Amino acid sequence: MQKGPYNGIPGSVASAGRGSVAGQVNHLRRTVHWADGTTTQEIEIDPLASGIAFSKRGDSGSLVFDFHHRWVGMVVAVESYHGFGYIAAAEAIIDDIEKRTGGKLTLL
Asked: For 13-101, which CATH class?
């Protein structure tokens, strides 16, 4: 399996939003500015050569998987002109939940 640049995320992923669609992991992090004033560094997922958008408006919250059906992240933002999706890595989501709750999250 080809590994991408972040947290073991492979070079290609699929989103399970309003339908399944594949995308290519970009090698650059993108800064996302949130309405509450916070900023985060997210992973950009580009459309494949087919030209089908990886993400569209309303896809935020969609889970993203590698091609071995392992959860690798969640769509958190969309650039709708080019069809880019921005995902938070699963590892970052788990870390945030544990930090906020003081608990330990285990995935089966």
From this structure: mainly beta
